Amino acid sequence: MSTPHKLPRSSSFRVVDVIGTAAGGLGSRKLRTVLSALGITIGIGAMVAVLGLSRSGSAELEDRIAALGTNLLRVTAGQGFGGGDATLPEDAVAMISRIGPVESVSAVGTVDQSVLLNDLVNPNQTGGLSVKTAESNLVVALNGSVDVGRFLDDTTGTATTTVLGSVAAERLGVRDIDGTQVLIGGEWFTVVGVLNSFDDDTDDVDTSLFNDLDRAAFIGPDIAEALFETPRNPDTIYVRSNEAFIDDVIGVLPGTADPESPEEVEVVRPSDALEAQEAASSTFDNLFLGLGAVALLVGGIGIANVMVIAVIERRNEIGLRRALGATRAHIRRQFLLEALLLSALGGVAGVLLGAAVTALWADRQGWRVVIPPEAIGGGLIAAVLIGALAGLYPAVRAARLAPTEALRAS
User: Phi then psi for 77, rounded to 5 degrees?
Assistant: First the structure.
């Protein structure tokens, strides 16, 4: 009677055991594990930081555009005949206000005088401050606000009173407007108000849209004409238009502001400058993302190199485990899982590093901290994929080692 054939008993090496063995393999070489994961950390950290800073910067620009409004237009005089400076007509504001879709119009003019804290200061040391005439609705037209006191109105605009821009007040040392006076063109003017900044980036001359207003002392056109013989021609006109007709308004503004010389009138939409700035920043974002991808690739190659060396160094372990019943699949899973754990460790550290860099830099710039979820999820997925690709060949190589060959080689 023949003995029945016995089926080989399936291995009891469970998935949990594979994970524990893989983690133990990494834990036994802590320094090498950390150094190997560092490449992944740098790559993922760079990518997360670039995306986070880009999104935070975009959010800041979007906030500025929203505060500014996309329906604001700025009208100025360009170059006159022969290259000289042209001027806008005195009635330009009144003419523009008659355009149907125009919702509000305000203007500022230039006063050729200096503003000083007192008569002991050298008049030539202006500190970059200027004096401007302003319409009473300037703050409303620009979506600005008054920090202390009030803005010019029909009463204060005809008296020796002034309102200081945020930077002007800071440089003049004006903190309390009760009875405070400044010297404008040899005449004492009482400070009745201080404005909040029209632009959060007033320290950046290249990107700020309203540096000249933040650095100005505003007086009424009537008092400027009476004391300093300042012409009533506006220097800059700010126009708020119905958003639906903004292009039409842009088309008719030059001819309306100066019918005799429309070619000498320049019309600018300030929000376009911010949108152009946002578009330009994307070029640098792509550059840094590319550098992050290169660092990630280098990290993946480093992991593959470390895993190949680990296979060579641990042939004795592989042979012994194969002799004790571990299958090729078990060995393959172990080394593949080690690579995955190694890259995942670097990925988590990279995400944390990128998020920390984004938070610190955005907070320093006064931006909203925005870390896109896709940057976090994409960073972790990228790390795992890199680990899988990097560990695939070493895992297959380890699984192909025969037990006798591995033990004999050791």
Answer: -85, 135
